[in-house]
Design a protein that fits this description.
Blueprint: H1 6-17, H2 28-31, H3 44-49, H4 53-58, E1 86-90, H5 91-97, H6 102-106, E2 112-115, E3 125-128, E4 131-132, E5 137-139, E6 142-143, E7 155-162, H7 166-169, E8 176-182, E9 190-198, E10 203-214, E11 217-229, E12 237-249, E13 255-268, E14 276-277, E15 280-281, E16 296-311, E17 316-332, E18 334-342, E19 348-352, E20 355-358, E21 368-373, E22 375-395, E23 398-419, E24 423-424, E25 427-428, E26 433-438, E27 454-476, E28 480-497, E29 504-520, E30 526-537, E31 556-569, E32 574-591, E33 597-617, E34 620-635, E35 652-663, E36 666-675, E37 678-679, E38 687-688, E39 691-701, E40 705-712, E41 720-724, E42 730-733, E43 738-746
Parallel strand pairs: 5-8
Antiparallel strand pairs: 1-7, 2-3, 3-4, 5-6, 7-8, 9-10, 9-43, 10-11, 11-12, 12-13, 13-16, 14-15, 16-17, 17-22, 18-20, 18-21, 19-20, 21-26, 22-23, 23-27, 24-25, 27-28, 28-29, 29-30, 30-31, 31-32, 32-33, 33-34, 34-35, 35-36, 36-39, 37-38, 39-40, 40-43, 41-42
Keywords: Cell outer membrane, Membrane, Receptor, Signal, TonB box, Transmembrane, Transmembrane beta strand, Transport
Main location: membrane
GO molecular function: siderophore uptake transmembrane transporter activity; signaling receptor activity
Length: 747
Amino acid sequence: MNRLTPVASALLALSTVAPAWSQSAPTRDAAAAGSATTAATMPAAAGALMGVQEVEIQGESAKDFTRRDASLNKLSADLRDVPQSVTVLSKSLLQSQGASSLSDALRNVPGVTLGGAEGGQIGNNINLNGFTARTDIYLDGFRDRGQYYRDTFALDAVEVLMGPSSMLFGRGSTGGVVNQVSKVAQLKPVTEVDASATTNGMVRTTADVGRAIDATSAFRVAAMAQSGRTSTRDEMKNTDFGLAPSLKVGIGTNTEITLSALLQRNHDMPDYGFSPWKGRPVDARHDNFYGDRNDRTNQDVATFSALVSHRFGDDMTLRNEIQSNHVHVDARETASQSLGLPTDKPGGLACASGFCTAATTTPLDQLFVKLQSHDRVITDHAVFDQLDLTARLDTGFVHHEIITGAEIGQDTYRNQAYSRTGKCDGATMATGYVGCEPLLAPVYQDSPASAPDVAGNLSTSRANSYGAYLSDTLSLGSQFKLVGGIRRDRFDATINNTITAPKFITQNVSYTSYRAGGIWQPTPAQSYYVSYSTSFNPSLEQLTNTTGTTAPLPPETNKAYELGGKIDVLTGKLSVDGAVFQITQDNARSADSSGNYTATGTVRVRGARLGGSGLLAHGWKVFAGYAYLDARIIDGIGVGTQNMVPGNTPRNSGTLWTTYELVPHWDIGGGAVYASRRYANNTDTTLVGGYARWDGTLDYHQPKYDVRLNVFNVFDRKYFDALIQSDGGRSVPGTGRSAMLSFSYHV
C-alpha cells in the first residue's frame, strides 16, 4: 500500500474517505514546545502510538495536514482516547490555503457556518452543528468571549470539539467549542517572515521569531500588520496590527513557567450584507455596499496569561494558569434594514417616518434600501484562574488517567448604545434610521453631519463563575477503555440598564454536567467509541438579556449521543474518522405572538460526519470532510418556527483541500468548500441557495523560503457567506475571484 499510484489513492479516498472531515492535532514541534523530549527521542512504542514514526521513515515533512494529539490538558493527549469528534486545523493547512482569519480557518470544518453582527454582537459569530457558538470560542482553554475579529498570526492550530462539553468547559458548548492554540516559546529556534499581497489590494506581513535564552529558557514573538481591501466587496478595507510575545522558563525541568500575551488592534469595515426580498437575498450586484463610507469597527485586544506547571515524578502534574482578557470596541455601523420606497415615491404602501413598504411587484430599480445605525461602544473584560491536576495510577488490573481541577473567574460587560437619525429624500426618519439609498445604485458617502450620534441605553453586566470537575479514563486491558466525568458549575450574573426594560435582572444557576463513553481499540491503529455528554446555557450567558423578561428563564439544557470511529491506514500516514450523533436542546427560549418568552422550545439535530487527512501517497497531502445535519425545531422557539429548520444550518456541507508534489520543489493543489441551501432565519421565510467555492494553489519550496500563489473562488461563483437572522434574515455576499502572492522565509 505504500506504493499506491495517484489514481489508486484517489479511488481509495473517494470510496473510504470521500468528502470527509479531519481530526488533527498540534504538530510535533508544538507538542515538543513544552518539553525537551521530541519524536526522535521517544520510545519506539510511543512514537508509533502518535503516528510519527512512519512519517519520519518516509522522509515526509512535519508539515503534514494530519495531527493526532490535543493541546487541551483536559483531554487525553492522543485523540483516539477521546470519545468525541475532534478536528484540529494545523498551521501548515492554513498556510497552504492562505487563510489568515479564524473565519477562514473554520471553513475547513463541515457543520460550522458563519454569522454576522447579530443582535448587537460583533466579531466572530459562528454556528456549530446548528447551534450558536458565540461564547464558545476559547484561547488556550480559556473562554475568549470578547467581541473581536480573530486573526491566525499567533496561532499554531485551531481545535474544534463537536457536541456538548460542559463537563470540560462549563456553561455553553451546545454544538461544540472552538479552541485557538497559541504559539509558545520553545528551545528549538524559530524564524519565519511572511509577506503577501492580493489582487484586491490587501498587503500583509507576519513574523514569528523564537530563540533559546539558555538551556531551559526561551522566548518567542509573533507579529502581524495588514492593510487594504479584504475582498472584492466595495468599501471593504481593514487596517490591523498584532503582537504576541511569550516567555518560557524551566523547559524540560519539573517546574515550567510560561508568560504570554496577545495584543491586537483592528480598524475594520463592517458588512451587514443584503436584505431579503420575496424570500431570497435581494438580487443586486454582489459587490454593492449598503452603509456609510466612514463606518468603522475599532477593536483593541489585550490578553495576558501566566501558567505554572509542576511535575511530581512521571505520573502526576499540577498546573495553574490565570488569564486576563480585555476587549474594547468602538463601532459606528450602518446596516441594510429593509427595502421599500421614500414617502414621495409612487407605489408605496404603509408609510411611516419617511419610508414606505413596497409591493412585491415593485421593480428592483425603483426600490430603496432603508439604512439603520448600529452604533455602540463595548468593553468586555474577563479574569479566570484554572487549577488542574493530572495523574496516572493503577488499581489492580485497571489503569487510570485522572484529570481533576477547579475554575473561578469573573466577566464584566459594558455596552453604551448610540443612534443616528437622518432623512430619506428630505423626510425625517424614525429614530435610529440614518437614511436611504437606491438598491441598484447605492451612493457611497459618509454618514451625514446632520445625523450625530445620540447616546441611548447603557447596559452593564457582571458574572461570577465557579466550577470543579473530575474525569477518569480507565484502561481495561489493552483494548477497552471507559471514560467518565462530572462537573459542578455555579453561574451568578447581574445586568443593569439605564433605559431598556427591565432596568435590573439577576440570575443564579447551579448545574451538574456529565460525560460518559466507552472505547474499543482492537489494534493501535483503530479506535471505536460511544459517548454521552451534556451541557447548559443560562439565559444571561452572553451577559445580555435577550428575552426582555424581568425574571431570568431556566437554563437551556443539552444532551448528545455519539457513535464513531477513528482509524489510521496506509501504515499510519492517513487518518480517517466518522461518527453519527444526536444533539437535543430542551428549555429552548421561545417567544409568543405578544413577545413574551418562555423556556418551552426543543431543538434537535441528528447528523453524521466523515473525515480524512494525511498522505495518500508520497508528496500527496489531503484534508477533507463532510457533515450531514438533519436539524429541526421540534417545539417552537418563536412564532412560526414549529417544525422549521434552524437558521444558518445546511443539511449537507463539505470541504476538500489537497496538494500534490508535481516535481521536486513544486506543489499544485486546491479544493472546495460546499454548503447546501440554508435559511437566514428560524421561520424559514428567507432561503439562501447552496454553493461550492473552489480555490487553488501553486507552491514553490526551498529549504529557506517558499513562494505561493493562491487563487480564491476560481470560478467567480456568486454565493452568500455569513447570515444574519435579524430583520428578516440578511445575507452577506462572499468574495469574488481574487489571487494572493506570498513569500515566506524560514529557517
